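I'd like us to work through together how a protein chain folds, taking it slowly. To get us started, please write out a protein record for me. Go ahead whenever you are ready, and we will take it from there:
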Amino acid sequence: MKSEDKQNITGFVIQGLTDIPEIQSLIFLIFLLCYVIIFLGNLTIFVVILSDSRLHTPMYIFLLNLSLTDIGNITNILPKILNILLTQHKTISFVGCLTQMYMFLSLALTEAVILTAMAYDRYVAICHPLHYFIFMSLRHTAILVVSSWTFGFLVPTGYPVLISKHLFCRSHLLDHIICDLTLLLKISCSDTFNVELLIYLQGAIISVPAFVFTFISYIFIFSSVLKIQSSESRQKTFSTCTSHLTCVTVFYGTLLCLYMRPASSFSPKQDKFFALLYIIMIPILNPVIYTLKNQDVKNALTKLMNKHLCFTAHESNK
């Protein structure tokens, strides 16, 4: 095939979930409902934490930023899926595909670093409580938050730059629901060594250390909790970690299933299923877990709702 034919790329075709019209209508409604729930749920947590000064502590500041990553992730992915289901227009521009891929990788990396910072926060609170306000001052918290977003959006910049220089001479069909990096590499005719090297470097420098640091933090946390004599005190202390530990387990468990399976077990259906778990389940679970298990957040939400109702009643009586 000629070089000019290889370079003639205006976009890709995203296969999506199904071609059956009856099922597509049902899936569209389900995904639309999920989008509304995820957006409003995470936006509520963001507003509640921002509006209540009692929640301006490291753990809740991290949670606020976690909500932002969830909102960004679903806004990056779900509207395109909904558009495909509604219009059957499955094409996505070359720039649009690279942008979606970059945002997906950046937000996932940002979330991983934020979860690591939250693990560090719990480690300091339980293992070094007397030094908590020294190690987790607002200044240190701000540095961790800024670092999370900086690393998250800076490190993956190499992917769209390198992919934009690739030649694509094979099918432009992506049998997925998103512009996935691994699929783009499969249909590329160019040498993928640089991109694969970047993937390994990112894993070695950020992704793996973030996972290991979180894992080690919980080893120390478990060790400290087990040393507490009173079973009631042990349960109360560990309960401050259960929400975060649940989110970490779901986050890394989903990503491991998506990208760390044996090559023989890879299939388009499984890839789409695990991608949906990551895109939809995690942003839904985060606000539910942190709201239902956190009395401070529930109290702040009740206070905000009462304040809004009082303001509405006052305005209506004018």
Summary: The chain has one domain: 3-316.
